[in-house]
Structures are given as structure tokens and as C-alpha cells.
Amino acid sequence: MAKRITIAIAGNPNSGKTTIFNNLTGARQRVGNWAGVTVEKKEGVATYNGYTIQVVDLPGTYSLTAYSLEEIIARNYVIEQKPDLVVDVIDASNLERNLYLATQLIDLGVKLVFALNMMDVAQSRGLVIDHEKLSLLMGVPFVPTVGSKNQGTRDLLNTVSQVAEDRESVSRHIHIDYGLELEREIEKFERLFLTSLSFPDEHQSRWMGIKLLENDEEVIKQVENTPLKEEVLDQLGKSKAHLCKILGEDSETLMADRRYGFIRGALKETLRQTRRDRRYLSDQVDTVLTNRLLGFPIFIFFIWAMFQLTFSVGQYPMDWIDEGVGLLSRFIGDQMKEGLLRDLIVAGVIRGVGGVAVFLPNIFILFFCIALFEDTGYMARAAFIMDKVMHTLGLHGKSFIPMIMGFGCNVPAIMATRVLESRRDRILTILINPLISCSARLPVYVLIAGALFGAYAGNVIFSLYIVGIALAILMGQLFKRTLFRGEIAPFVMELPPYRMPTLKGTLIHMWERGSIFVKKMGGVILVGSILVWALSSFPQTVNYSRDYDEEERKVKAQYAIERTNLIQKGQAEKANLLTEGMNRKIAELEAFRKDEFQENSLLGRLGKVIAPILRPVGFDWKGGVALLTGFVAKEIVVSTFGILFQVGEGEGEESESLRTAIRKTMTPLVGYGFMVFVLVYTPCLATVAAIRRETGSWRWTAFSIGYSLTLAWILAFIIYQGGSLLGLG
Ligand code: GDP
Ligand code: MG
């Protein structure tokens, strides 16, 4: 008979949780809503020996205090959903740090299995772990695994089933001993809780006592809703004062010290290092990569190389997709009867969505590079390097983590500001985050820089990212000095060991994020394209300023006469030249007609309304309209250009003709100003929604939109007017 078990996978970030989760369930991690933040729980099913095991991958945490969103999610899941068992994935190469979370799970009193992962790394560092003894000491079975090679998975499943059925002999609940003084205080709370009917459980009341001494906000809140409130808070004040007096430290620090004491004690008997005093490769690499002088230039170099790669390698698949889109639009165009429907599909959907699809390779390459940075451990160094930079500028170093995430997408980055403790830091970080250029803006850069800057496109795009970072820092400075005065709290930046990434892992990470763009194409970009097409196609009847039909008829008639003349004189070659001339003339007339049609369309009229605002920065109404549609999502800027510049229908590559059209309407100076505008103004509706949600205030949301629009305009103005003055136009 099948038995059902629910297990949750906990562990430090980068300990290999997701890898183990994939090994157990055989399924890939389900893609969350937003890149970067693991706030969604991922679920899968494993079957083993008659068991059906429901597996949940919790967010990675170093601890279970109520500081960050991840910690609260992980902890509430364990407490409220009560999984049958928790598998804590522990990085064997960094035991001391990883066991901290383990001690908190032990306190919680849940059934546990420890997956001792990264055994290969531990071994290569000469660490010898007596995991059997460790199991006995801690009352929890340790199962050695190498997640990336799928080793130990069956052992893990077997141990899970044993523990779930209470058949595992080493399993027992231990109390971590916090020392005489602390234990005495914990006991006071325990007694208080046990006398009240609302906390009948012994584990829970001890746990709540521990958490109170750790200043846990959630538990304090929980207590505040009970009749015990006064008594408990009173006791808490007394206990803390007492501990501070006799031990000279805050109770929270004392608890942490004790936990580490426990861990060191356990490891003393069970962990040996065979090669002493050997500096790890990681450390050696770090002396260079995080070097005070070299670190920053190297970081900038990596980012530069990333964009060069994105642009140069991306060119090939981009051309293929481009060709495919062209073929498709011609094929469908030939199949369908002329009319609005054909227009909608060919000019609206294929041109709009296809125009963005062309840039998917670039986006995927960018995400591949970001995944590589993360998987090797370099991303943490980047945060570390920038942390120092941020500190010298008077900004909170922790704020740079959401900023790095902003390179992928601003939405999860803004959500990630929840890890910041003070509301002021949070709002400040939220305000500057959209200046970090997310990958949705990349298609705009690739299109415009590709059209206007040729071989320098990669460098130009790189410069935009740098401008974004610089602006974020500057605005951060400005806001900090004006809107948010105050001190910053110190924060330790983690430096996890470097790791050789696996191709599969990196590809999965790339796909997790990149696939969001594929989905977006079928959603907001499709809808946006159709809307832009509709606005640019109506009204259908126009009072043209010239009679194009008549003029075309005249050109043709004139030509017919001349051609007959030439042929009679036996000058067939000249007649052919004439044909070319005529075609050019007619194309010209058609272009005028199309322009007039578009200017008369709803979109054109809208463009005319905003044109005066954009004239000083050098954009025409088409650019203005593209920016307007870009409020919904940045990729739609590209779709809009695709729809508005329907030149060279049916001939050559789609994006080549689009680029040609852009070269005709923008100088490099205007183009650069345009890209800076796209970089700086409000990224997209989803970001606005995220800002509203995370600040909880319409005023800050309005401020964010307002200041970014103003800043965008001012910068574009400076670029255009300044550049023109310098004769760069
Ligand atoms: P999570 O953040 O805890 O979900 O960690 P992941 O599962 O994403 O793993 C982080 C990185 O460690 C990935 O590149 C994995 O391929 C790698 N990894 C996972 N387990 C092992 C292991 O046992 N040994 C080694 N060398 N690498 C591993
Ligand atoms: Mg993970």
C-alpha cells in the first residue's frame, strides 16, 4: 500500500537544495513568477519503495529568525504546514556555518534528516567528517550526498522513509544546551507558557522562549495577541536586563554564541582536516578578484565582456530568427486575402512579437552569463566589491544585492528589498533600483545601438549599463542627503567558496529566467502589439493632402509613353532603367501616403500631443509613441518601432530594414539620448505595481514615476542639446 509523506527541503543558499530537490523528484524546479527570488515554493513528487513523497523546496536561509522574507516563509511553512519531516541540506565544506540553521531546526522539534551535501568539495579540501558520530551526537541522521552527481539520493530517500516511520535508531530529540544562565531564563518562559492553555505543547513553549531571547519579532507579535502579553513582555525585559548585567551581552548575541559553541563542540570530535594550513584555491582567487585595487576594474571587465558576448555571439541566432520571422510573414501574407485581418496578423502580431523574438538569443546569453556568475560564486564577490564602493558613498552595502538582481528584472529586485531591515533603506533602494538596466531593456539597446553604432554597439550597450549604475549611486546619494537622513548599519557580506558550475545547472538557471520572456511574448507583448497596431491602423479613411492615386496614375502613364518611345528606338536597356526610376518614385509616394496615414491615426494624433514635450530632446512623434507604449513593458518599444516602420515590405531581412528605417529617423546622438531615456524612465507596469506593493504607498509610487520621467527627460535633453552644441549631431 502506498504511504504518503510530505517533506520540506531547507538549507543555506547555495548548499545544493534545488539540486537535491531535482534529484529526488526527477523534475526540474518549477519556474516562479519572477526571476531571482525564490519566494514561491516549488513542489514535486518522489516515489520510493511504496512511498509517495511530496517534496517542497523552501527558500534558502542561514537562519530561522524573522528577519528576512525567506526566513519567514521557510519557518512558517515548517511550523504551520507541519511537513512530516524536514531535510536540511548542509554544505559539508562549510559545516560550521551550515549547522547554525540545523541547530534552529533541532529547536523547532521537527523530524529531521541532514543531507551532508558537497562531500566531493569537502574531500578535495582534505576534510574528513565522521558523519556517523555526528549523527549520534546531534540525534539526526546525516546522509552524505554529492548533489551535482546525483550520489546518495537513494540513501537519502531510504533514511527519509525510516525517519518518517520512526524506525531510524539515531533519531532522537536533543535539547541544545544554552548554558546555565540562558537555560534558566528560557525555563521561565516555558513555565509561563505551559501554565496557559494556549501553549500546551512542550517543544513549542521552549522554542518560543528561545525565540523571545533572540528578539524574534514574529514570536513577540504572537505573544502580544494573548492574555499573557504583559507577563511575558515584562519577563522578557527582566531577563534581558539580567543577562546583560551578568554576561555583558545582549541576549540575542549570547544565544548565537551558544549555538556556535554547540556546533564547535560537535565538530571537534567529528571533523578533521588532513591538510592543514593550506590556503584554499578560493582564497587565492579571492586575493585577486576582491583585491582593493584590482577588484573593481575586474568586475567592470567581466560586465563588459558579458555584453560583448551577448552582442557578438547573439548576432548569429538573431539573424536566423529574423529570417524565420520574415519567411513566416511573407508566407502568411501570401496565403491570406488582403484586408484588415491579414494586416493585423502580418503587421501587428508577427511584426510586433517577432520584432521582440529576434532578441531572445541576446536575452538568453545575458542570463547565461548571469547564471554563470551566480553559480561560480562570483556574484557574491561582485556584491562584496560594490559593497565597499557603496559604503564610501554613504549607502548601505546590503542594498546592492537587490541592485544586482535588477540586471535580470527589477520586479524581483524590488521584492528582494524586503531583506533590508529599515523602511528608509528599503524605500531608498526601491527608488534607485529601476535605474539598474533590466534585461527587458536590452532589445531596445540592441536594436538602436545595432542600427546606429555598428561595430561599437557592444561598447555602447555596456556604457548604458554603467550609466545606470552611476545614476543609481548618484541618486542614492542625493536621496540619502535630502529625503532620508540617518546612519547606516554595518552588515557582513558573505563570501561562499568558488565552485565549478555544471553546464546543466547553469542552463537550467538560464532557462528559469529566460523562459519568463518567452511567456511574456505570448502575453503582454502580444496584447501590446495588437493594441499599437490597432491604434496605428484607425481611422481607416483619411483626407490626404495630395491625391496619391492620381499622382501614381500620372507617373505610370508618363512612364508608359516614354517606354514605348524608347522601345521603338530599340533602346531596351534604357527602358529598364526607366522602370527602376518609376518604381522608386511610386515607393516614395507610397511612403508619403503611409506617413500621412500614420500621422492621422489615433497613435499619430497621440504622438502629436506629446511631440512638443519631446522636441527639445530630439525625438519625433514615433519615438514619443514608442516610449509611451514602453510604459507597459520595455520590449514593446521595439514592437512599436516594428509596426510603425513598415518599410521595405516583403524584401530583405526584417530587422535590417527596421535598422535602415531607424538610421533614417535618428542620428547616433538622438539614438543615444533615446536609449538613456529608455534606461531611466519607469521600467514597466509590473515594476510600478511592485513599487506600490512594497512601499505600500501611492505617494512613493507617484514620486518614483515622476522623478524617473523628469530625470530621463533632463538627461536626454543634456545629451541632445549638449551634443548638438559640440557638433556631434
Ligand atoms: P540552492 O541555492 O541551495 O538551491 O543550490 P543549488 O541546488 O542551486 O546548487 C548551487 C550550485 O552547487 C549548483 O551549481 C550545483 O550544481 C552545485 N552543487 C550542488 N550539489 C553539489 C555537490 O554535491 N557538489 C558540487 N561540487 N556541487 C554541487
Ligand atoms: Mg535553489
Question: What attributes does this structure have?
Answer:
729 residues; alpha/beta; 6-stranded mixed sheet; 8 strands; binds magnesium ion
How is this structure best described in words?
The chain is an alpha/beta fold and 729 residues long. The chain has 31 helices and eight strands. It has helices spanning 17-25, 69-81, 95-108, 119-124, 131-138, 153-164, 180-195, 202-213, 217-224, 229-247, 251-270, 281-289, 295-335, 340-357, 360-376, 378-392, 400-405, 410-415, 423-432, 442-453, 457-482, 503-537, 548-568, 572-600, 602-614, 621-629, 635-644, 654-665, 668-680, 685-695, 698-725, and strands spanning 3-11, 42-48, 51-57, 85-91, 112-117, 127-129, 142-144, 271-273. The strands form two sheets. A six-stranded mixed β-sheet has the order 2-3-1-4-5-7, sandwiched between helices. Helix 3 (95-108) links the parallel strand 4 and strand 5. Helix 7 runs antiparallel to helix 10 (229-247), helix 20 runs antiparallel to helix 29 (668-680) and helix 22 (503-537) packs across helix 27 (635-644). It is elongated, with a radius of gyration of 32 Å. The relative contact order is 0.08. The model is unreliable at 31-38 and 648-652 (pLDDT under 50). The protein binds guanosine-5'-diphosphate (GDP) and magnesium ion.
